[in-house]
From TrEMBL:
<dbReference type="InterPro" id="IPR011989">
    <property type="entry name" value="ARM-like"/>
</dbReference>
<dbReference type="InterPro" id="IPR050693">
    <property type="entry name" value="Hsp70_NEF-Inhibitors"/>
</dbReference>
<dbReference type="GO" id="GO:0005783">
    <property type="term" value="C:endoplasmic reticulum"/>
</dbReference>
<dbReference type="InterPro" id="IPR016024">
    <property type="entry name" value="ARM-type_fold"/>
</dbReference>
<feature type="region of interest" description="Disordered">
    <location>
        <begin position="278"/>
        <end position="319"/>
    </location>
</feature>
<protein>
    <recommendedName>
        <fullName>TOG domain-containing protein</fullName>
    </recommendedName>
</protein>
<dbReference type="GO" id="GO:0000774">
    <property type="term" value="F:adenyl-nucleotide exchange factor activity"/>
</dbReference>
Length: 319
């Protein structure tokens, strides 16, 4: 069943009628075939922040696991208002929803990833990590993790733009989801085959201090807290091994795998868990984009990333 907003619902949405957005129906048709795609994209520029946020929700559902819908949204110029809302919407909820829609739109979508690079989308991700919203940070980190896992050149660019420092700061967050996702991003950078640990050398001492602090915190946890922190334990240990080529104190003291837990070979895909619905539908979607091997130490993606942003880079909501 594909999500559909009928033409009548789209008309109800006009004029700031938020209730119309809630009248979303499920049917066997697709959004484009009933003429609802263009109106929904239009509402991404609506003066009502709640309507902008809800429209982004609709786009998210439409494009998830659906390469055809991804292409239609790109062709209908849906990327530009989503990027604008993500980067500069004055309403934080609308910004967060736009980021979620962008994540779904460009995942396994080569033209979408290229457009994100050309539009300086990574600068928006950096701004999101600097925000005070844990939810916004988690969504940004999940997209960062995906991009890092897909392209060696992205690893180089992220390192050059200062993301390791930001992720080190977030690895001490009070929010466990942010903390784990930041550790996962750092681990992806440390394991990059073209950069190795060099992407973290500038902050090598800070990283060592951070990991030791996390391990000391884990050592003082109650059994219940230790169980809840299983993913963090595994990530901290894996990152320590990747950077320092020696077992962590968690492993040495028997805190890595507790009694009753199964051992593991690879750390969990913590940030990637936000995309679990996409994994479950993998059998129905197009083959994944192959990881690029063309990156080098100077950052093969820099030209794409640092190109001029589109003219619609600033939000043009009519208030």
């Amino acid at each position: 069943m594909a999500l559909v907003v009928s033409v009548e619902v789209a008309k109800q949405m006009d004029g700031g009628n938020y209730s119309g957005l809630l009248a979303i129906e499920y049917c066997s048709s697709d959004l484009h075939s009933v003429g609802g795609l263009v109106p929904v994209i239009k509402y991404l520029r609506n003066s009502n922040a709640r309507i902008r946020a809800k429209a982004a929700d609709v786009v998210t559902t439409v494009v998830q696991n659906n390469p055809t819908s991804q292409q239609l949204v790109m062709e209908a110029s849906g990327f530009e208002p989503l990027l604008s809302n993500f980067r500069s919407d004055p309403d934080l909820t609308a910004r967060t929803k736009a980021l979620g829609a962008l994540s779904s739109l460009i995942r396994n979508n080569r033209p979408g990833v290229a457009a994100f690079r050309l539009a300086n989308g990574y600068i928006g991700l950096r701004d999101a990590l600097n925000s005070e919203s844990a939810r916004f940070q988690r969504k940004a980190l999940s997209l960062i993790h995906y991009l890092l896992s897909e392209s060696h050149s992205d690893c180089s660019v992220f390192a050059q733009l200062g993301f390791p420092h930001l992720m080190m700061c977030l690895a001490s967050s009070d929010d466990s989801g942010v903390r784990e996702a930041a550790l996962g991003g750092l681990l992806e950078l440390a394991r990059d085959t073209t950069l190795g640990n060099r992407s973290l050398l500038a902050e090598h001492d800070r990283l060592r201090w951070l990991l030791r602090r996390r391990m000391e915190s884990i050592r003082t946890m109650t059994p219940e807290d230790l169980d809840a922190a299983r993913e963090e334990r595994q990530l901290v240990d894996s990152l320590w091994i990747a950077c320092y080529n020696e077992p962590s104190m968690l492993r040495n003291e028997g805190l890595l795998v507790l009694p009753g837990e199964e051992s593991f070979e690879q750390p969990p895909d913590v940030a990637g868990r936000f995309f679990e619905p996409m994994r479950q539908a993998s059998a129905r979607r197009a083959p994944p984009v192959e990881r690029s091997e063309s990156g080098d130490e100077t950052g093969g993606g820099m030209v794409l990333l640092l190109g001029p942003a589109p003219n619609g880079g600033s939000n043009s909501h009519s208030h």
